[in-house]
Design a protein that fits this description.
globular; about 375 residues; alpha/beta
Length: about 375
């Protein structure tokens, strides 16, 4: 009867469970389905393949990384149009998936409005942050012995690089970093093939948490988290978590989402366009991954706007944007640490970042005694927002 009465059909869009960010999708999607149903909607779930850059490193898989964004966008558009969904609850993953889905949803929204149909609505729930792994104490001692052995054989460069790599939290890129040092040590007779394989395996099993998540460094996954939040598509309750979202958190997201249905200003293409300047500034202030610049442009083009890298650069340079992340993978200031601050209530994530950026911009304006005429209207629009 809900389908007969055209109740909102909401797609819960997840990713493939062979990507660490989507291991817990089944739990999140089930909780989302419960709340969508309680709010009078009809939930369905589908997922897309999600390519993990960490898994694909140093093999042919990297040739498929960038094109996966358009592949994801195409698959999502096909499914949404084929099954006539009204909106989407997106479990946001890592790498190219987030902006691929944003592109798809913005495109569907634009196409439907061109056809004179209702706008398309969406809300994103980013996968929680994966706590970085730690090298087991006995392995630290063995690696230090290896470094000292390298020094005794005149390979100080190997020892320096090995100790430097050991200082970082374990993450998806750790294997590649260690491999480079181990290969050099093997070539110079400091390490045997058997020892190399032993270290590789011991480090691998200590890297990832069993509940998966987005790796704790500020790469494409977390940069996409910040960017999509800056676009206004992420509810604060699920913006930065250290564990998969609870039923209560998901309820907060979907209760707000229910109030957006059929409000044209909340259509995805409108949301993205209204917030693109803020999103670019959030991306800059958080020291975001540079490859996202091309994905920002793609998302705007999918949404039906004329937009280029030159437009992005113009927004970026309208006024100074401070880099506010005192980010480190060696001193306890990774994205997992930021997520812990958000979960404890000591930070409000992107909202805190935005307000501090704005405060520093105003200080710069006062210091240079710029008038509104010289500065233009952009900063003052942000103040109203």
């Amino acid at each position: 009867m809900r389908l007969e009465r055209n109740a909102p059909r909401i797609a819960i869009i997840g990713g493939s469970s062979d990507h660490p960010a989507h291991i817990m999708d089944y739990q999140t999607s089930a909780r989302a389905a419960i709340r969508i149903w309680q709010n009078g909607g009809v939930p369905f779930h589908f997922s897309t393949p999600v390519m993990c850059d960490g898994t694909a490193q140093n093999n042919q898989g990297m040739s498929y990384s960038l094109q996966s964004r358009n592949a994801v966008a195409q698959m999502v558009v096909n499914q949404l149009e084929a099954h006539s969904y009204h909106g989407a609850f997106v479990i946001q993953g890592c790498d190219k998936q987030p902006l691929g889905v944003v592109s798809a949803l913005a495109h569907v929204d634009r196409v439907r409005r061109n056809r004179g149909e209702a706008p398309f609505f969406a809300t994103f729930a980013p996968a929680h942050v994966l706590e970085g792994g730690s090298i087991p104490e006995d392995v630290i001692e063995e690696l230090e012995t290896l470094a000292k052995n390298a020094e005794s054989k005149g390979a100080a460069d190997v020892a320096i690089d090995l100790r430097d790599t050991m200082a970082y939290i374990l993450q998806c890129s750790s294997n590649t970093a260690f491999q480079g040092v181990f290969e050099r040590a093997y070539e110079r007779g400091i390490l045997t093939k058997e020892q190399h394989k032993y270290f590789e395996m011991r480090l691998a099993v200590a890297t990832c948490d069993g509940q998966g998540g987005v790796c704790a460094f500020n790469g494409t996954g977390n940069s996409s988290r910040h960017l999509v939040a800056g676009m206004g598509l992420v509810h604060p309750a699920v913006e930065l978590l250290t564990d998969p979202p609870t039923q209560r958190q998901i309820n907060s997201v979907l209760d707000s989402f229910a109030g957006m249905i059929n409000e044209e200003r909340y259509g995805v293409a409108n949301i993205v366009a209204a917030n693109i300047k803020n999103a670019i500034r959030i991306h800059s202030a958080s020291g975001g991954s540079t490859n996202l610049m091309m994905h920002i442009v793609a998302g705007m083009l999918y949404a039906g706007y004329k937009f280029s890298l030159w437009d992005l650069d113009r927004i970026h340079h309208l006024h100074p944007i401070p880099d506010l992340f005192d980010y480190s993978l060696t001193e306890g200031r990774d994205i997992y640490s930021l997520a812990m601050q958000c979960c404890s209530g000591t930070s409000r994530g992107m909202e805190t970042l935005f307000m501090n950026s704005l405060r520093m911009v105003y200080q710069w304006i006062r210091m240079h005694r710029l008038s509104p005429q010289k500065l233009g209207k952009n900063v003052f629009r942000l103040q109203k927002a």
